[in-house]
Structure formats: C-alpha cells, structure tokens
Write a structure and sequence with these properties.
Elements: E1 8-14, H1 19-27, E2 32-43, E3 49-54, E4 57-67, E5 70-80, E6 83-84, H2 85-96, E7 107-108, H3 110-118, E8 124-138, E9 141-150, E10 153-162, H4 165-174, H5 185-193
Antiparallel strand pairs: 1-5, 1-10, 2-3, 2-8, 3-4, 4-5, 6-7, 8-9, 9-10
Length: 202
C-alpha cells in the first residue's frame, strides 16, 4: 500500500468569522457534522507534539515542518487504554519533553493515567475540549468551521487542509482567510489557559 502523505494545514481561531463563514457556506455545502469530547495534555516544554485523548485512545501527532505559513503534522502514536507503564514512559512522555515519573503500576486505566501520572506533573495540564465541526470541501481542500469549548471558553475555528499548498493558498483567498494567523490547537489552548504569552484570539 502507498504511504499516506501528511497534509499541510492552515487553522485559525476567532470569536466570530463573519464574512469568512458566509463565503465558506456560499461556495460549499456542509457535508457532515462531527461532535467530540477530547482531553488534551498540554506541556510547557513542547509546542511540537499534539497529545490528546479521544474515545479512550491516546493520539499523538508531531509537527513535521512549516512551509509557506502552513504546518504539516504526522501521526506519531495512537493506542488504547488501559496502557502499559512502559508505553507511557517510552512513547508518551518523550512527546511532552519532561521526565517521566516513577510508575507504581504496570498498566494504567485512563482515569489512573490522568489522576496519578498527569495530575502531579507541574509542567503538564489537562484541558477538556469539546468540538462541534462542520465539514466542507473548498478548492479541493478539506475545510472546516467549528465551535470549540476549551475548558468551557468558547471559540470558533476555521481550517483548510490539503497535500497541495497552492490549493490552500487559493482557498484562503477565496474565502478571505488570508488575513488570519495560522494558530494550531496547541497554541490556541495555551493562550486560553494562560500558558502562552500571546493574547487569546478573540
């Protein structure tokens, strides 16, 4: 089977997208709506590993490169709970960029992992994120509008993804996203919880 080529991504956050949303809905119909409740583990020591839990699965993506204002992320790990302590030590904690703790169990449930492993770590913070996402296709790109609640704080997100950088560039122009900064989930969450110095993208 051919290897999956990681897509480039442009994502941004705002309180309201106004004309951007109107143009997105004018050029494409909503193809599906997805809702999810996720737990992000945010580390002060890392901005390059997106670590979250969804549907009892630990999901880690790593930032591969930045090119022409876009980011390319690649899956690094996806595994289910209960999880072995050896996996948490060797596969998960390197993504946080902090030293692993002493493990008291050989296997951890999700609750044990959050309460006993993540909770006591001063450099790590658990953040609850609820997403309601509306999917479109614009200029051949995967496109998205979403309502995002970060520990209860509501933001809106807009997103374009493709393996074709030019397609994203043209789509940004078509729907007036070109004036927005590329802000990934890690950066948006860090701003909301006060872990990053930049202002919250209201």
């Amino acid at each position: 089977m051919a290897a999956i080529k990681p897509r480039f991504e442009f994502r941004t956050f705002a309180q309201d997208f106004g004309i951007v949303e109107r143009k997105m809905r004018a050029v494409s119909q909503v193809e599906r709506i997805r809702e999810s409740a996720e737990i992000y583990i945010i580390s002060r020591a890392s901005d390059e590993n997106n670590t979250k839990i969804r549907d009892q699965l630990m999901d880690i993506k790593v930032l591969v490169q930045e090119k022409q204002g876009l980011e390319q992320w690649n899956p690094r790990l996806k595994t289910a709970f209960p999880m072995k302590a050896s996996s948490i030590q060797d596969e998960v904690f390197p993504a946080f960029g902090v030293a692993p703790p002493q493990f008291q169990r050989e296997v951890y449930t999700l609750d044990q992992y959050l309460n006993e492993i993540i909770g006591p770590q001063p450099e790590l913070q658990t953040v609850h994120v609820y997403k309601r996402r509306f999917a479109f296709t614009i200029n051949g790109c995967i496109a998205e509008l979403g309502d995002v609640y970060i520990n209860g704080a509501m933001l809106r997100t807009a997103n374009l993804e493709s393996t074709d950088i030019d397609a994203i560039t043209h789509a940004k122009q078509e729907i007036d996203l070109k004036g927005y900064d590329n802000i990934n989930y890690l950066m948006a969450i860090k701003r909301v919880i006060g872990m990053a110095p930049e202002p919250i993208p209201w």
